[in-house]
Amino acid sequence: MNAMKRYLTKPVAAAMIGAATLAIPASMAVPTASAVAQPQANQLDRAVRALRAITTMRADFTQTDRAGNSVSGQLTLRNPGRIRFEYTDDVNMLVVSDGSALTLVDYDVNQVERWPIRNSPLGALLDPNRDMRRFGTLQPSSTNNVISVQVRDPNRPEFGVMTLVFVENASAPGGLELASWVALDSQNTRTTVRLRNHRYGMSVPDSAFRYRDPRRSSRRPG
């Protein structure tokens, strides 16, 4: 991986896994009126149902930092709790979850870093029943067919903040398609992940969520 790819990818991947929070105005953090709370609860439930309706999914992703630099690859998701971000060949890294921990594997420096899912903003994606229902708030949208949900724990800012964007799509499980998400860290580093070319319901083996430990070998997996 060339120097620019290395400069871009490592902090971007780290922001996805271990982001801390960016301050959010209190008025956006907690619904205050019961008339507002019920519609919000309904939309949150829709988003949770849509994520839980996915058995397996593959999608192409583009991952972009605040400066507009981007890398791409393929995302593989299998519920419950398993996800894999496989980058294109010029980015020699892998992000994978086996259902209990997220692992960042950097094959250029033979380094492996692991975080419990509960310490990651991706916890909202991998365990929406826990994170989205307890910590999710609906965000304003100017488009009727878009649902935007921000997930953050005000008592644990080190767990990060993540905003998931869903688009109405009758052919997607649950009638909503996860289109993108944004993670923010304590240095105001923003990571945006956009998905396209979604495919659902394919067979995904357990091996998709394993990785070769580069500390034991210098070869990249095939």
Can you describe what's shown?
The chain is an alpha+beta fold. The protein has a single domain, classed as Lipoprotein localisation LolA/LolB/LppX (outer membrane lipoprotein receptor (LolB), chain A, Clam). 23% of the residues lie in helices and 37% in strands. It has helices at 3-18, 26-29, 34-52, 123-126, 128-135, and strands at residues 56-65, 70-78, 82-87, 93-98, 101-106, 111-116, 136-139, 146-152, 161-168, 176-184, 190-200. It has an eleven-stranded antiparallel beta sheet with strand order 6-5-4-3-2-1-11-10-9-8-7. Helix 3 (34-52) packs antiparallel against helix 5 (128-135). The chain is globular, with a radius of gyration of 17 Å. It starts with a helix and ends in a 22-residue tail after the last strand.
| Overall spatial form | globular
The overall number of domains is 1
What amount of the residues lies in strands? 35-45%
What low-confidence regions span 5 or more consecutive residues with pLDDT below 50?
A: 1-8, 17-36
Helix content: 10-25%
- Given this structure, which CATH class is correct? Mainly Beta
Query: What is the average of the pLDDT values?
Result: 77
Largest pleated sheet = 11 strands, antiparallel
CATH architecture: Clam
Label the structural class: alpha+beta
Number of strands: 11
Through-space gap between termini: 16 Å
Looking at CATH, the homologous superfamily is Lipoprotein localisation LolA/LolB/LppX
Total of DSSP H or I helical runs spanning 4+ residues: 5
